[in-house]
Model the fold of this input.
Amino acid sequence: MSELLSAQVIAAFGRQYLVRLTDGSEMACLTRGKRSEVACGDNVEVRRTDHPSVRIGTPSLNGLLPTAQGVIENIAPRRSLLHRSDAYREKIIAANVTQIIVVVAAEPSFNDELLARCLVAAFDQKLEVLIVLNKCDLLEAASAARKQLAPYSAIGYRVLELSAIQDVSLLRPFLTGHSSVLVGQSGMGKSTLINALLPDAQAITREISSALDSGKHTTTHARLYALDNSSSLIDCPGVQAFGLHHLSFGRIEQGFVEFGQYLGQCRFHDCHHLHEPGCALRSAVEAGKIDARRLDLFQRITAASH
Ligand SMILES: Nc1nc2c(ncn2[C@@H]2O[C@H](COP(=O)(O)OP(=O)(O)OP(=O)(O)O)[C@@H](O)[C@H]2O)c(=O)[nH]1
Ligand SMILES: [Mg+2]
Ligand SMILES: [Zn+2]
Done:
C-alpha cells in the first residue's frame, strides 16, 4: 500500500473532496465507505490509489476537477468546527477556522437574526469575530445598515466598513495569522471580497461559473484559499438560516455576550426572560443597558427551539 500523506481539504463536493498536499499539489479524493463528515479546512491523511477511476464532481464540472486519485484515511482532531443544525440534520460549514467574518451589506438589506445566530455559533467555538459591512459605496443604504449594526459595535464587536469593489486593503490586517471563514446571506459580496484579495481566486470562480453555464456567480461549495503561510480564507455558499439546534438554552444565553453580567440574577433560576416577574434581562432593557432588539432576537432564537 502507498504511504500516508498529510493534506488539507480545500473543497468539499458532497462526499468528494479536493485536498492540497504539503508540497502544494492538489489531489481529488474520496472517503472510505459512508464517511462524509469531512469538512473544508480539515487536516487529513490521504493515500494515493493505484487505479484512479472514479470521476469527481458534478457532470457539468467534469474536466474541471481531476479524476479521484486518493482516499482520505484519517481526519486530525479539529481546533474548531463551525456547523448549523435543525431538528433533523447538521450541516458542517468549516473545520479548524480561528475567525468568522460575518459579511453583511448595505444592499440587499440583511437579516439581523442571522447575524445574531452566527455570533452565538462563533462564541460556542471560541472564534474571533469580525463583522464586515460591505457595499459602503452605496451611501444611503450604508447609513441604514450602519444604524442596524450600532448595537453590535456598542457591545464590543469589531465592525469594519468597506466596499469590496473599491478597496479591500482595510481588511488585510484582520486576516493575518488567521484561518477565516466568510459567512453571510447570498449576495452580500463574500466572493467579491475574496476575488479582490486574491486575484487567483477570480480565475477559479469564473471557470466554475462558465462550466455550469449560468450567468450567476452564486457560490455552490465551500472553498479554502491560502492567503500566505499563516493565513487562509474560506468562501462559503450564502446561508438563509443558521439553526442552532445543537446548542443548549444556556449556551445561547452565553452567546449573547452582553447578557453575561445579568445571568443568574433573575428571580427564577430557570427564567426564560419572557414574561417572568423579576427578570434581570428585561430590567436591563428597561434601564437602557441592553438593546431591546437583542433581547427580542434572543427570545426568537430560543423559541424556535434554537
Ligand atoms: N455596489 C457594490 N456591489 C458589490 C460590492 N461587493 C459585491 N457587490 C455585488 O454584489 C453581488 C453579489 O456578490 P457576490 O460576491 O457574488 O456575493 P456572495 O456573498 O458571494 O453571494 P453567494 O455566493 O450567493 O453567497 C455581485 O453582483 C457583486 O458585484 C460592493 O462593494 N459594492
Ligand atoms: Mg459567493
Ligand atoms: Zn430572566
Q: What stands out?
A: Residues 190-191, 219, 235 surround magnesium ion (ligand 2) (CB under 6 Å).
